[in-house]
Protein backbone atom coordinates (compact mmCIF):
# COMPACT_ATOMS: atom_id res chain seq x y z
CA UNK A 1 0.00 0.00 0.00
CA UNK A 2 1.66 3.28 -1.09
CA UNK A 3 2.49 5.93 1.49
CA UNK A 4 0.22 8.96 0.99
CA UNK A 5 1.97 11.85 -0.76
CA UNK A 6 1.56 14.13 2.25
CA UNK A 7 3.98 11.90 4.17
CA UNK A 8 6.23 11.08 1.23
CA UNK A 9 6.01 14.02 -1.20
CA UNK A 10 6.76 13.51 -4.85
CA UNK A 11 6.13 16.07 -7.55
CA UNK A 12 5.34 14.98 -11.09
CA UNK A 13 4.40 17.43 -13.85
CA UNK A 14 2.95 16.76 -17.26
CA UNK A 15 6.46 16.93 -18.73
CA UNK A 16 8.09 14.79 -16.08
CA UNK A 17 9.38 11.38 -17.17
CA UNK A 18 7.42 8.38 -16.03
CA UNK A 19 8.26 7.56 -12.41
CA UNK A 20 10.88 4.87 -11.97
CA UNK A 21 9.95 1.58 -10.48
CA UNK A 22 10.37 2.02 -6.71
CA UNK A 23 13.31 0.30 -5.09
CA UNK A 24 11.93 -2.06 -2.42
CA UNK A 25 14.76 -1.36 0.04
CA UNK A 26 14.26 2.38 -0.34
CA UNK A 27 10.53 1.95 0.18
CA UNK A 28 11.20 -0.09 3.31
CA UNK A 29 13.35 2.73 4.76
CA UNK A 30 10.43 5.12 4.30
CA UNK A 31 8.14 2.84 6.31
CA UNK A 32 10.19 1.69 9.30
CA UNK A 33 9.78 3.73 12.50
CA UNK A 34 12.26 2.96 15.27
CA UNK A 35 10.85 3.49 18.77
CA UNK A 36 13.26 5.50 20.94
CA UNK A 37 11.93 3.97 24.14
CA UNK A 38 14.98 4.96 26.17
CA UNK A 39 15.28 6.75 29.53
CA UNK A 40 17.12 9.94 28.56
CA UNK A 41 18.29 12.20 25.75
CA UNK A 42 21.86 10.90 25.78
CA UNK A 43 20.64 7.34 25.19
CA UNK A 44 18.40 8.55 22.36
CA UNK A 45 21.22 10.42 20.64
CA UNK A 46 23.55 7.44 20.99
CA UNK A 47 20.97 5.15 19.41
CA UNK A 48 20.21 7.55 16.57
CA UNK A 49 23.94 7.85 15.89
CA UNK A 50 24.10 4.08 15.41
CA UNK A 51 21.08 4.11 13.09
CA UNK A 52 21.88 7.35 11.26
CA UNK A 53 22.54 5.78 7.87
CA UNK A 54 19.93 3.04 8.21
CA UNK A 55 16.68 4.58 9.49
CA UNK A 56 14.77 7.79 8.77
CA UNK A 57 11.77 7.69 11.11
CA UNK A 58 11.96 7.71 14.91
CA UNK A 59 9.21 7.50 17.51
CA UNK A 60 9.41 9.59 20.67
CA UNK A 61 6.99 8.29 23.28
CA UNK A 62 6.09 9.00 26.87
CA UNK A 63 9.24 7.66 28.54
CA UNK A 64 11.68 9.81 26.58
CA UNK A 65 9.44 12.88 26.27
CA UNK A 66 8.74 13.02 30.01
CA UNK A 67 12.43 12.54 30.82
CA UNK A 68 13.92 14.95 28.29
CA UNK A 69 11.11 17.28 27.21
CA UNK A 70 10.49 18.83 23.78
CA UNK A 71 14.19 19.73 23.43
CA UNK A 72 14.94 16.08 22.62
CA UNK A 73 13.21 16.57 19.26
CA UNK A 74 15.46 19.38 17.99
CA UNK A 75 18.61 17.40 17.13
CA UNK A 76 16.55 14.74 15.36
CA UNK A 77 14.66 17.28 13.28
CA UNK A 78 17.85 19.20 12.43
CA UNK A 79 19.34 15.99 11.06
CA UNK A 80 16.35 15.68 8.74
CA UNK A 81 14.68 12.75 10.47
CA UNK A 82 10.90 12.35 10.56
CA UNK A 83 9.40 12.20 14.04
CA UNK A 84 6.39 10.27 15.26
CA UNK A 85 5.40 11.90 18.58
CA UNK A 86 3.43 9.18 20.32
CA UNK A 87 1.93 10.76 23.47
CA UNK A 88 -1.61 9.35 23.03
CA UNK A 89 -3.57 12.38 24.24
CA UNK A 90 -6.76 11.40 26.08
CA UNK A 91 -8.66 14.11 27.97
CA UNK A 92 -11.61 16.45 27.58
CA UNK A 93 -11.97 17.89 24.05
CA UNK A 94 -10.67 21.38 24.87
CA UNK A 95 -7.55 20.05 26.59
CA UNK A 96 -6.75 17.60 23.81
CA UNK A 97 -7.24 20.28 21.13
CA UNK A 98 -4.78 22.54 22.93
CA UNK A 99 -2.27 19.69 23.31
CA UNK A 100 -2.55 18.85 19.60
CA UNK A 101 -1.86 22.45 18.64
CA UNK A 102 1.17 22.54 20.95
CA UNK A 103 2.49 19.26 19.55
CA UNK A 104 2.04 20.46 15.97
CA UNK A 105 4.12 23.54 16.74
CA UNK A 106 7.08 21.30 17.60
CA UNK A 107 7.52 20.37 13.95
CA UNK A 108 6.81 16.65 14.27
CA UNK A 109 5.27 14.61 11.48
CA UNK A 110 2.75 12.34 13.25
CA UNK A 111 0.95 12.62 16.60
CA UNK A 112 -1.48 10.38 18.44
CA UNK A 113 -4.71 10.68 20.39
CA UNK A 114 -6.69 7.86 21.99
CA UNK A 115 -9.78 7.05 19.94
CA UNK A 116 -11.46 5.98 23.20
CA UNK A 117 -11.74 9.67 24.08
CA UNK A 118 -14.94 9.73 22.06
CA UNK A 119 -16.39 11.55 19.03
CA UNK A 120 -16.27 15.06 20.51
CA UNK A 121 -12.63 14.70 21.55
CA UNK A 122 -11.63 13.29 18.16
CA UNK A 123 -13.42 16.06 16.30
CA UNK A 124 -11.75 18.70 18.49
CA UNK A 125 -8.32 17.15 17.89
CA UNK A 126 -8.82 17.15 14.13
CA UNK A 127 -10.19 20.72 14.11
CA UNK A 128 -7.14 21.89 16.08
CA UNK A 129 -5.03 21.30 12.97
CA UNK A 130 -7.27 23.31 10.64
CA UNK A 131 -5.49 26.19 8.97
CA UNK A 132 -1.95 24.92 9.56
CA UNK A 133 0.18 25.02 6.43
CA UNK A 134 1.97 21.74 7.12
CA UNK A 135 0.11 19.86 9.87
CA UNK A 136 1.30 16.54 11.25
CA UNK A 137 -0.68 13.42 10.49
CA UNK A 138 -3.21 12.88 13.28
CA UNK A 139 -3.48 9.22 14.29
CA UNK A 140 -6.20 7.75 16.46
CA UNK A 141 -4.96 4.88 18.62
CA UNK A 142 -7.56 2.10 18.57
CA UNK A 143 -6.70 -0.76 20.97
CA UNK A 144 -3.22 -1.13 22.44
CA UNK A 145 -1.27 -4.15 21.22
CA UNK A 146 -0.81 -5.24 24.85
CA UNK A 147 -4.57 -5.78 25.15
CA UNK A 148 -6.23 -9.13 24.47
CA UNK A 149 -9.79 -10.31 25.18
CA UNK A 150 -9.01 -11.00 28.85
CA UNK A 151 -7.55 -7.53 29.36
CA UNK A 152 -10.52 -5.92 27.65
CA UNK A 153 -12.99 -7.89 29.72
CA UNK A 154 -11.18 -6.72 32.86
CA UNK A 155 -12.00 -3.09 32.00
CA UNK A 156 -15.61 -3.86 31.14
CA UNK A 157 -15.38 -4.20 27.36
CA UNK A 158 -16.97 -7.42 26.17
CA UNK A 159 -16.26 -6.87 22.49
CA UNK A 160 -13.32 -8.67 20.93
CA UNK A 161 -10.27 -6.52 20.20
CA UNK A 162 -11.12 -6.65 16.48
CA UNK A 163 -14.69 -5.46 17.10
CA UNK A 164 -13.51 -2.63 19.33
CA UNK A 165 -10.89 -1.54 16.80
CA UNK A 166 -13.50 -1.33 14.05
CA UNK A 167 -15.92 0.62 16.24
CA UNK A 168 -13.22 3.15 17.17
CA UNK A 169 -11.94 3.44 13.61
CA UNK A 170 -15.42 4.17 12.28
CA UNK A 171 -15.77 6.82 14.99
CA UNK A 172 -12.48 8.36 13.93
CA UNK A 173 -13.41 8.40 10.25
CA UNK A 174 -16.69 10.10 11.09
CA UNK A 175 -14.67 12.78 12.93
CA UNK A 176 -12.50 13.37 9.86
CA UNK A 177 -9.45 11.39 10.98
CA UNK A 178 -7.85 9.15 8.38
CA UNK A 179 -4.86 7.79 10.29
CA UNK A 180 -4.96 4.99 12.86
CA UNK A 181 -2.72 2.92 15.08
CA UNK A 182 -3.77 -0.72 15.25
CA UNK A 183 -2.24 -4.13 15.81
CA UNK A 184 -1.17 -6.32 12.87
CA UNK A 185 -4.25 -8.47 13.44
CA UNK A 186 -6.66 -5.66 12.51
CA UNK A 187 -4.71 -3.92 9.76
CA UNK A 188 -6.40 -5.76 6.87
CA UNK A 189 -9.91 -4.91 8.06
CA UNK A 190 -8.94 -1.27 8.66
CA UNK A 191 -7.34 -1.04 5.23
CA UNK A 192 -10.62 -2.19 3.74
CA UNK A 193 -12.39 0.45 5.85
CA UNK A 194 -10.09 3.40 5.12
CA UNK A 195 -9.14 2.66 1.52
CA UNK A 196 -5.72 3.49 0.07
CA UNK A 197 -5.56 6.99 1.60
CA UNK A 198 -5.72 5.71 5.18
CA UNK A 199 -2.46 5.89 7.14
CA UNK A 200 -2.12 2.73 9.22
CA UNK A 201 0.73 2.71 11.72
CA UNK A 202 1.32 -0.74 13.16
CA UNK A 203 3.26 -1.59 16.35
CA UNK A 204 3.52 -5.11 17.74
CA UNK A 205 6.08 -6.04 15.08
CA UNK A 206 8.33 -8.94 15.95
CA UNK A 207 10.73 -10.62 13.49
CA UNK A 208 10.62 -14.39 13.45
CA UNK A 209 12.26 -15.74 16.60
CA UNK A 210 12.17 -12.45 18.52
CA UNK A 211 10.85 -12.30 22.08
CA UNK A 212 7.20 -11.23 22.35
CA UNK A 213 7.58 -9.28 25.62
CA UNK A 214 4.37 -7.61 26.80
CA UNK A 215 2.80 -7.56 23.33
CA UNK A 216 -0.24 -9.73 22.68
CA UNK A 217 -1.34 -9.13 19.09
CA UNK A 218 1.76 -9.30 16.92
CA UNK A 219 3.05 -10.19 13.45
CA UNK A 220 6.28 -10.27 11.48
CA UNK A 221 7.21 -7.22 9.37
CA UNK A 222 6.37 -8.99 6.12
CA UNK A 223 2.98 -10.15 7.37
CA UNK A 224 1.98 -6.66 8.49
CA UNK A 225 2.99 -5.03 5.20
CA UNK A 226 1.17 -7.63 3.14
CA UNK A 227 -1.97 -6.97 5.17
CA UNK A 228 -1.85 -3.27 4.27
CA UNK A 229 0.26 -1.45 6.89
CA UNK A 230 1.62 1.97 5.92
CA UNK A 231 4.31 2.15 8.61
CA UNK A 232 5.77 -0.36 11.05
CA UNK A 233 6.91 0.61 14.56
CA UNK A 234 9.74 -1.53 15.91
CA UNK A 235 11.35 -1.01 19.29
CA UNK A 236 13.09 -3.66 21.35
CA UNK A 237 14.08 -6.01 18.48
CA UNK A 238 16.26 -3.12 17.25
CA UNK A 239 17.03 -1.00 20.30
CA UNK A 240 18.00 -3.90 22.56
CA UNK A 241 20.02 -5.74 19.93
CA UNK A 242 23.78 -6.02 20.36
CA UNK A 243 24.10 -4.26 17.01
CA UNK A 244 21.01 -2.06 16.43
CA UNK A 245 22.03 -1.11 12.88
CA UNK A 246 22.47 -4.75 11.88
CA UNK A 247 19.10 -5.65 13.44
CA UNK A 248 17.39 -2.77 11.63
CA UNK A 249 18.99 -3.78 8.33
CA UNK A 250 17.69 -7.34 8.73
CA UNK A 251 14.16 -6.04 9.33
CA UNK A 252 14.44 -3.70 6.35
CA UNK A 253 15.44 -6.62 4.13
CA UNK A 254 12.40 -8.60 5.27
CA UNK A 255 10.20 -5.56 4.59
CA UNK A 256 11.76 -5.09 1.15
CA UNK A 257 10.95 -8.65 0.18
CA UNK A 258 7.30 -8.05 1.10
CA UNK A 259 7.29 -4.83 -0.95
CA UNK A 260 8.64 -6.43 -4.12
CA UNK A 261 6.21 -5.71 -7.01
Would you summarize the structure shown here?
With 261 residues, the protein is α/β, with parallel strands linked by helices. Helices cover 41% and strands 15% of the residues.
Description of the structure:
The protein is an alpha/beta fold. The chain has one domain: TIM Barrel, CATH 3.20.20. It contains twelve helices and eight strands. The protein has helices at 24-31, 41-51, 62-68, 73-78, 93-104, 119-127, 149-154, 161-174, 187-194, 221-227, 236-239, 244-259, and strands spanning 32-35, 57-61, 82-89, 110-114, 137-141, 179-181, 199-202, 231-234. Strands 1-2-3-4-5-6-7-8 form an eight-stranded parallel β-barrel, surrounded by seven helices. The radius of gyration is 18 Å and the shape is globular. Mean pLDDT is 90; it is low at 9-16.
Structural class: alpha/beta
Number of domains: 1
Number of strands: 8
CATH-defined topology: TIM Barrel
Global shape:
globular
Number of H- or I-type helical stretches:
12
Give the neighbour order of strands across the main sheet: 1-2-3-4-5-6-7-8
Low-confidence stretches: 9-16
Report the portion of residues in β strands: 5-15%
Please write the string of helix (H) and strand (E) elements: HEHEHHEHEHEHHEHEHEHH
Q: Which CATH class is shown?
A: Alpha Beta
- Biggest beta sheet attributes: 8 strands, parallel, barrel
CATH evolutionary superfamily: Aldolase class I
Helix fraction? 40-55%
Mean pLDDT: 90
Radius of gyration from CA coordinates:
18 Å
CATH architecture level-2 label: Alpha-Beta Barrel
End-to-end separation = 11 Å
Amino acid sequence: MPIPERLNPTFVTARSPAPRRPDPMEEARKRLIVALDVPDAASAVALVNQLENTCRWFKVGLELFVAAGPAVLDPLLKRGHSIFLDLKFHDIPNTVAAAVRSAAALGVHMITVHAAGGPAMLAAARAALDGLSDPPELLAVTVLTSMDSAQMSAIGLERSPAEQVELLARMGLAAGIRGFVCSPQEVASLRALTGPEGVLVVPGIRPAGAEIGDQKRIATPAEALRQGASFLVVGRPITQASDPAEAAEAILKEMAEALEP
